[in-house]
Design goal:
Elements: E1 10-17, H1 21-35, E2 39-47, H2 51-67, E3 73-79, H3 84-100, E4 103-108, H4 114-127, E5 131-139, E6 157-161, H5 162-170
Parallel strand pairs: 1-2, 1-4, 2-3, 4-5
Antiparallel strand pairs: 5-6
Helix pairs in contact: 1-2, 3-4
Organism: Methanoculleus receptaculi
Protein name: CRISPR-associated protein
Length: 171
């Protein structure tokens, strides 16, 4: 929710990159196609061992965006490997900056490694930031899924918004 007097700047999307570039790109594609995400800013947060693959993810996010008439500013943030505290600090800082700039913030945890995901979610929770969406692309199988989103049968995959799902549980 935007604060009074704060103009809406649009969507900002923070995605956590780990071992699977396909998971990151497909989750982004699902969020854009199925959930109506229209990011103006995208940040790919990765760890040092995966930094080289993050450039491929960056290019792929750009291509998917272009296919939907979007041209977000895309950046990559590289973290030290398995640094829970640094992951939390970085993602809390990015989300806080985006919120102060008027963006609605979405985070995708699909491809993130556990330490990065845990660090991010704990830091965001402790900070009490107004994160609008936490996306996770669930797959019913891991067989033959290293390919573009549109080539994977729809019944095998489902994009979840964990914030919406949690709200439905408490209703």
């Amino acid at each position: 929710m935007n604060s009074p007097g704060r103009p809406a700047a649009g969507d900002a999307y923070i995605t956590l990159h780990g071992r699977s570039t396909w998971a990151l790109v497909n989750a982004y594609h699902a969020a854009v196609r199925e959930r109506g995400l229209r990011p103006e800013r995208v940040v790919i947060v990765t760890e040092e061992p995966y930094a080289e693959a993050a450039s491929t993810a960056e290019a792929a996010v750009g291509m998917v965006s272009e296919g939907y008439g979007l041209s977000p500013e895309i950046q990559v943030e590289v973290l030290p490997e398995a640094d829970f505290v640094r992951a939390g600090q970085t993602i809390r800082s990015l989300a806080g900056d985006f919120i102060r700039q008027g963006y609605d913030v979405a985070i995708d945890i699909t491809s993130g490694r556990k330490v990065t995901v845990a660090g991010a979610l704990i830091a965001l929770s402790v900070a009490g930031l107004d994160i609008r969406h936490i996306y996770y692309l669930a797959m019913k199988t891991t067989d033959d899924i290293a390919k573009p989103y549109m080539m994977i049968p729809h019944q095998v995959q489902r994009i979840h918004d964990l914030i919406e799902d949690a709200a439905a549980l408490s209703a």
